[in-house]
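Design request, tokens follow.
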């Protein structure tokens, strides 16, 4: 393990290794960049094969959060945490409370949330130990499930993409291929069908597909989704699905969906561009969930969450403009937008007033 060499490359500020023998806790918290504000990013629980795998994952994911928050215009930095363990076997109250105490020890520099392998009940235990977590249950005044906001934000990204390619943003005039009908995918399908759009769907879960068919969607096979004659491909399941094997099959004009890391490699991003397909960068498109939880800092408001999520339309449009102006791919343009914002705010040389986060309206049991 070359820890300092790794974090020198990725420019992380702080990496915290958390251990508690009694609770069986082995976790890593990575804080990538706090120029714009406290580092926010979910907690993932996964049976990593090696400690190096866990470290690589937390470093990669926390860096991604810095870029996502920056492009979203949020006053947040990037962070992430991982627990090494099997979410089906190794969960306990003690485990999550131990993790919560480590989060608390960072004094607000890192704020956690739900991610893969973690559910709202686990977060309840984390929340017992620290206020520095978001996405807490609505029962405590939190924002609840972020998926509908992620889907609504994705719809804004689609509208911005239609505007760029077709010169109008009327959802109902186009056809869509939605890969994955889970939490986000199903909500997105509902929004598309509400505009009477033609929607093709696929999922490995037949029940999830059936739910969408009942809304008037057409089901296609798992592998057939790449060949569908639709205007927009909406990946809402897996990463790396735009790759050397799938791209030559695309008849889509636009790729715009909520899944993370859709492009298998940077080179495939260039190839997408060469083929004249517009790619709306995933982390700009799927920021609705992050925007929604960030509102917990100031006291959650549904109205504010909706208004903030609508800004994804402008953020994605801005990225397309930078790509055009600078003659670069949209992925590079998104990174550039993030880096420019961080650099500009970092240069202010004004004392940071440390507004702190009060989380008004939220209440913990027993507090
Ligand atoms: P989910 O697990 O609820 O849904 C994923 C769906 O994809 C499931 O129905 C699953 O059966 C299906 N699926 C898995 N493999 C598939 C395959 N090979 N082909 C077709 N379908 C397949 O997850 P989600 O919360 O809806 O998230 C979807 C994607 O969006 C993920 O990549 C996630 O990281 C990303 N994302 C989600 C949020 C959020 O708010 N939930 C926010 C940002 C990004």
């Amino acid at each position: 393990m070359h820890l300092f060499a790794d974090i020198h490359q990725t420019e992380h500020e702080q990496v915290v290794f958390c251990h508690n023998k009694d609770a069986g806790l082995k976790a890593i918290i990575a804080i990538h960049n706090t120029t714009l504000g406290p580092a926010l990013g979910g907690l993932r629980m996964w049976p990593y094969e090696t400690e190096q795998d866990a470290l690589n994952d937390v470093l990669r994911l926390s860096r991604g959060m810095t870029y996502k928050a920056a492009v979203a215009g949020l006053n947040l930095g990037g962070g992430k945490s991982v627990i090494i363990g099997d979410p089906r076997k190794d969960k306990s109250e003690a485990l999550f409370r131990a993790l919560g105490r480590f989060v608390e020890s960072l004094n607000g520099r890192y704020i956690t949330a739900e991610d893969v392998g973690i559910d709202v009940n686990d977060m309840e235990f984390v929340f017992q130990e620290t206020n520095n977590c978001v996405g807490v249950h609505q029962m405590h005044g939190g924002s609840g499930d972020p998926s509908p906001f992620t889907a609504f934000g994705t719809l804004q990204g689609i509208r911005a993409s239609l505007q760029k390619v077709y010169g109008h943003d009327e959802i109902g005039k186009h056809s869509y291929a939605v890969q994955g009908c889970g939490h986000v995918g199903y909500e997105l399908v509902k929004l598309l069908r509400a505009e009477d759009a033609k929607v093709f769907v696929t999922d490995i879960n037949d029940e999830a597909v059936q739910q969408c068919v009942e809304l008037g969607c057409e089901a296609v096979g798992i592998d057939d989704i790449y060949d569908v004659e639709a205007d927009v491909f909406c990946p809402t399941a897996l990463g790396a699905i735009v790759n050397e094997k799938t791209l030559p099959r695309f008849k889509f004009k636009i790729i715009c969906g909520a899944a993370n890391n859709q492009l298998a490699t940077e080179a495939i991003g260039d190839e997408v561009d060469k083929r004249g397909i517009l790619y709306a960068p995933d982390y700009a498109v799927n920021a609705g969930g992050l925007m929604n939880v960030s509102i917990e800092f100031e006291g959650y408001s549904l109205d504010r969450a909706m208004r903030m999520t609508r800004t994804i339309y402008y953020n994605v449009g801005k990225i397309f403009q930078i790509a055009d102006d600078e003659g670069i791919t949209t992925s590079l343009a998104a990174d550039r937008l993030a880096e420019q914002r961080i650099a500009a705010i970092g240069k202010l040389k004004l004392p940071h007033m440390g507004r702190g986060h009060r989380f008004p309206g939220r209440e913990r049991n027993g507090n």
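Comment from the thread starter after seeing the answer: thanks! Residues 146-147, 150, 179-185, 202-205, 208, 222, 236-238, 258-260, 286, 289 surround nicotinamide-adenine-dinucleotide (CB under 6 Å).
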